[in-house]
Design a protein that fits this description.
mainly alpha; 70% helix; 94 residues
Length: 94
């Protein structure tokens, strides 16, 4: 790389800037049917809105219901872990 040039930003960098976990961002991406980078931007925007954390929590809960409805219990369990972590980290009631 040439001196003075900055390399490309990675998806890990983008997710890291949101303060959320990759699992939480992946849940938003799944819910909205959008790429991870777009989900990170959406989640970051929502987290700066008054009711945004509740909206993100609802997206994850919706994903859990969808996973259960299609019989994907392992994915539902992983999403449940992401939801628990999110609720705990945001001091939201369970």
């Amino acid at each position: 790389m040439e001196k003075g040039r900055i390399g490309m930003i990675s998806i890990e960098d983008i997710i890291g800037m949101t303060g959320l976990t990759r699992e939480e961002i992946d849940a938003v991406a799944e819910h909205e049917h959008i790429p991870e980078a777009a989900a990170a931007a959406l989640a970051d925007y929502l987290m700066h809105q008054e009711k945004g954390p509740r909206i993100v929590a609802q997206m994850i809960a919706d994903d859990i219901r969808a996973a259960r409805a299609r019989g994907d219990m392992s994915h539902a369990a992983a999403l449940m872990g992401a939801l628990r972590h999110f609720l705990r980290s945001q001091n939201l009631p369970r």
